[in-house]
Design goal:
The complex is a heterodimer of chains A (349) and B (248). With 349 residues, chain A is of the alpha+beta class. Chain A is built from 9 helices and 20 strands. The two termini of chain A are 24 Å apart. Chain B is built from 12 helices and no strands.
Chain lengths: 349, 248
């Protein structure tokens, strides 16, 4: 993806509440992830040319559009709940962006119906947004954004407002339409599943700046921010690299198998690599501390156990149901936590 | 509040109401009233909708001052408004000589009566439309812009339809206010039968020599007021308003 700068569909540099520099290839989908208030929506608004606390220098397909108002930029923008026009039918919502390209009224209507058909909404053409479910509205919003064939597609949390089941089906629709889409696409999301299943690349944003911009695979392998590591389900700690290990703010030192980078370090521990004991463990676990179970949740065949550390950091462990039964795990149980040195991944920041 | 209404209904010459309303003088006044009130509404719409948009959406220096000026007629005695109009547009007013050189005379003319009506009606329209625009979710207009619609098309196809209920309510209030206008009209436009003598002015005069007809006409104006109120029920009589500028 990186060699395609010459054919970049989007290059942009923003400043203001969010400072970012990004290049997106034609056909590439980038997930913008980060905590609330990091500036994700602000980034999208700046790219769209909408008023907000950031401004962007933007080039789409090599043409500078930074000075143009939103209606001259040829972008598709879907804000958080779709913002379908409540007074227009689904078909007229989709046809809205088709004006001014030399189509007859007839052709516009046919094109709109085509798009609704493609998104499996053919029989809803005459309905108003108020008569549709959340998932249907989101699909219509997507059809409306795609119909004018924008060169840049901006989706702001397209699935956030939907329930789990609808989410999966709209996600499937999105996947099906983002695949053949040949412009640049940015999706803001909170959900790791969305980011990993829809995007080629992840742009991790925190407190107004880009923390990591890498292929999705690379981000999952070596996350560079505690927030994104936790989003991906990992235990994450920021600490200070010392020769003997990584010193956490609480005074505990985590020991890894590899040489420790100096300076600020992000430590990640996969919940699989966390073992829980009733009694102080001996043996091979180089890292051990005491804690109290604060929460137990189930994920498939395994249990996710959250432990509030008493003389070490808080940690999440994933254990088999059988191990949990043997341990007699439950809220309030006093446990020992063990993590092998090989389970500790250290990334210099 | 109720007692005067009861008095009006009690004194009404019920049998002769239709006949009295059919009186040529009354009909002329009625026609004039309709012309003047709708004319005033037209002027209010042309001036008021852009002003309301400006107040709701744009920050500019002197905004609160301009807003206060536009809303002033709400609390200003209408007679004072009439005097002010006279001093501005009258023959000896600020713009009088200039208007006269253009061959326009506003005082003691129907246009003047419309202007007087618009003067007192405008604030009702502006307040209602401003509230509707301010309550409108900006994302509809922003999304329309990203779909390639310029500001005018956005206003006509998204803003206007979404604030339609607020606009209709404001227009109804403004029209009703213009219909009942007395003080500013008589001060600025005079009381010429067939030219500027609207229903309220006619009622006032008839009260001297034909009180029964005056009561009948008052009854007509009361019915109009009630109709406007009923049409507005649910938006001014109940406090809750939806987020699309009060759509039901």
């Amino acid at each position: 993806m990186t060699e395609s700068v010459a054919t970049a569909a989007l290059t942009a540099r923003t400043d203001g509440l969010i400072a970012a520099e990004l290049t997106v290839a034609a056909g590439e989908v980038v997930a913008v992830v980060g905590p609330n208030g990091a500036g994700k929506s602000t980034l999208l608004r700046a790219l769209a040319g909408l008023p907000g606390p950031a401004r962007a220098a933007v080039a789409i397909d090599g043409a500078d559009v930074g000075g143009l108002p939103p209606h001259r930029r040829r972008i598709g923008y879907v804000p958080q709940d779709g913002a379908l026009f409540p007074h227009l039918s689904a078909a007229r919502n989709v046809a809205y962006g088709l004006r001014g390209r030399g189509l007859s009224r007839h052709q516009m209507r046919d094109t709109a119906h085509d798009w609704l058909e493609r998104l499996g909404l053919g029989d809803l053409a005459a309905r108003r947004p108020g008569q549709m479910s959340g998932g249907q509205q989101q699909r219509v919003a997507l059809a409306r954004a795609l119909a004018p064939e924008p060169r840049l597609l901006l989706l702001d949390e397209p699935l956030a407002a939907l329930d789990v089941e609808t989410r999966a089906s709209v996600r499937h629709t999105l996947r099906g339409h983002l695949g053949p889409y040949d412009g640049a696409c940015l999706i803001v999301t909170h959900d790791p599943v969305d980011a990993l299943s829809l995007a080629d690349r992840m742009l991790v944003v925190e407190a107004g700046s880009v923390v990591q911009d890498a292929a999705a695979v690379e981000v999952t392998r070596a996350p560079r921010s505690a927030w994104v590591a936790r989003m991906l389900g990992l235990n994450a700690y920021e600490g200070d690299g010392r020769p003997e290990g990584v010193l956490l703010p609480g005074g505990h030192t985590l020991v890894g198998a590899d040489p420790v980078p100096t300076g600020p370090v992000l430590v990640t521990v996969h919940p699989d690599h966390v073992t829980l004991y009733r009694d102080p463990p001996g043996g091979s676990a180089r890292n051990r501390w005491h804690g109290v179970v604060s929460e137990v949740t189930g994920t498939g065949t395994r249990l996710r156990v959250t432990v509030r550390g008493t003389n070490g950091p808080d940690v999440v462990a994933e254990v088999t149901a059988r191990a949990a039964a043997e341990l007699g795990v439950g809220e309030g149980l006093s446990v020992w936590v063990g993590v092998k040195a090989t389970g500790v991944v250290m990334t210099g920041l | 509040m109720v007692l005067p209404l009861v008095g009006l209904l009690w004194r009404a010459p019920w049998q002769s109401v239709p006949e009295r309303l059919g009186d040529p003088a009354v009909r002329t006044a009625l026609r004039l009233s309709l012309q003047c009130s709708f004319g005033a509404l037209g002027i209010s719409l042309v001036l008021g909708v852009p002003l309301a948009w400006l107040f709701a959406r744009v920050d500019f220096p002197g905004k609160s001052l301009l807003r206060a000026l536009v809303l002033l007629p709400l609390v200003l005695p209408p007679v004072v408004g009439g005097v002010a109009l006279l001093l501005a547009f009258g023959r000896r007013g600020l713009l009088g000589p200039w208007l006269e050189s253009m061959g326009v005379q506003l005082t003691f003319s129907m246009t003047g009566a419309m202007l007087a009506g618009a003067f007192v009606a405008l604030p009702f329209l502006v307040l209602s439309v401003e509230g509707a625009i301010a309550g409108l979710d900006r994302r509809y207009e922003e999304t329309a812009a990203t779909l390639g619609a310029g500001p005018l098309r956005v206003f006509a196809t998204v803003t206007l339809p979404l604030i339609a209920p607020g606009l209709a309510a404001g227009a109804a209030l403004a029209w009703a206010r213009a219909l009942g206008e007395f003080g500013a009209t008589i001060t600025f436009a005079g009381n010429l039968p067939g030219e500027t003598q609207t229903l309220p002015l006619a009622v006032y005069l008839m009260l001297q020599d034909d009180p029964d007809t005056a009561v009948a006409v008052s009854l007509l104006l009361l019915v109009v007021s009630v109709v406007v109120l009923v049409a507005l029920r649910g938006r001014w009589l109940s406090p809750s308003r939806g987020r699309n500028g009060g759509r039901a």
